[in-house]
Amino acid sequence: MSMKNKMTVSDLDVKGKRVIVRVDFNVPLDAEGNITDDKRIQGALPTIRHIIENGGKLILVSHLGRPKDGFEAKFSMKPAAEHLGKLLGKEVILAADVIGEDAKAKAAALKEGEILMLENVRFHKEETKNDPAFAKELASMAEIYVNDAFGTAHRAHASTAGLADYLPSACGFLIKKELDFMGKALDNPERPFVAILGGAKVSDKISVIENLLDKVDTLIIGGGMAYTFIKAQGHDVGTSICEMDKLDLANSLIAKAKEKGVNLLLPVDNVVGKEFAADTEAKTVPSDSIPDGWMGLDIGEATIKIFSDAIKDAKTIVWNGPMGVFEMERFAIGTKKVAEALANSGAISIVGGGDSAAAVEQLGYADRITHISTGGGASLEFLEGKELPGIAVLNENK
Ligand code: AMP
What we know:
The chain has helices spanning 39-53, 78-88, 101-109, 132-139, 173-187, 206-213, 226-232, 247-260, 301-312, 333-344, 355-362, 376-383, 389-392; strands at 18-22, 57-61, 92-94, 115-117, 144-147, 169-171, 193-197, 218-221, 263-265, 269-273, 282-286, 295-299, 316-320, 348-351, 371-372. It is α/β, with parallel strands linked by helices. Bound molecules: adenosine monophosphate.
C-alpha cells in the first residue's frame, strides 16, 4: 500500500509558514459544554507542539458533532480551543467562522508560534462534499497542509483530503504513529500473528476477515458474530444473534482459513441467557449444544482458556470487537479476560478503536497495550486493507 512512505510534518520547514492542520477535536461534551474526555486533543499535542516550537503559524481545523449547515453554538469549537489553551499554557485564538472575514484576518495576522483555531468546519455543508471551491478557500489561508486526524482519515472531505490539492502536504505525528504500528503489523508482522475479532455482526467484518486470512497465523472469532459460524457448522444456536444469509459465506471463510493454513478459533463454549437482559437466567453450555430458547451472550471459560493460550504465544496481536455483550457486567468476562491476556502478553498489541479500545481503557490495561488506535471506522478500514483517502492524498517522501 502506498501509505507507508508519507511525508511527516518533521520533514517540512515550517518556520514563518502558515500551517493548516486537520485535527480530530470531535470530543464528547456534557450538557453544560464541558469536555468529558480530552484524549483526542491530547493525541494532537505532539504535532501542535512541533509546529509552534519550530516557528510555524498554526491554523487548526476540525469538526465537532453533526451540525446541519451554518453556525450552531452547541457545536462551536470554543470549548476545545479553550481546553487546548489550558493544556499548552498558551493562548489559542478562536475564529468566529471557518473561511469568513474573521478567520482570514486572524490567519493573516498570525505571528510565529501563534495558534488559531477555526470554527467547526462542518458549519459548511461543502466540507463533507469535498467541494473544491471550499477546499481552495481554506487552503488560501495557509502555505502547508498537515493531516493529523486519523479518526476521519477514511473520509474524503475538503479538510481531510481536498486541501492536499492546493498545498504541499504531510501527515502529523498521530497519523504517523497509526501507520507505523498498524502498517507494520499488517505488512511485516513478527510471528505468530494473532487477530481477534468480535462484535455483533459478521457482515460488518467480512472484508476484515478476508484481508486478515492472508496475513495471520491464527484468527480468533468471538462475540455475536461467532454464532453465524457455529450455525454454519451445523449446530443450533437457539436465539443467539445469527445472520442466516451469511451461512455460506461463513463456510467459505472457514474453508479459506483451512486452505491458507490459518488456525481459526471459534468459541467451544458459551454463556447463554434466556433473554437479552443483564439479570436474565444464565448458564454455560458447549457450542454444539446451545438449547432452544437460549442465546449466546459471552464466551465460556473453556474458550477463554483456548483464546488466552493463543494470545500468550503471539508476537503480534490485533484486536477489534468485544467477545460478548460487555455492556452487561455478567457478560463482560470474556472481553475482560481477552484484554487481560493481551496486557500480559509480551507481544506487540494493537487494539482497534471503538468498543475494544474502551474496554481496555476501562479495565486499566491501556498502558500495557502497544498501540490503541484513535479511529474506530478508520482502523477497521485499515484492517480491511483499504487505502484511507485522507492519507493517500498526502505527499510522499522522495
Ligand atoms: P461492533 O460494533 O460490531 O464491534 O459490536 C459491538 C457490539 O456487539 C456490542 O454492543 C456488544 O454488546 C455486541 N455483542 C457482542 N457479543 C454479542 C452477542 N453474543 N450477542 C449480541 N450482541 C453481542
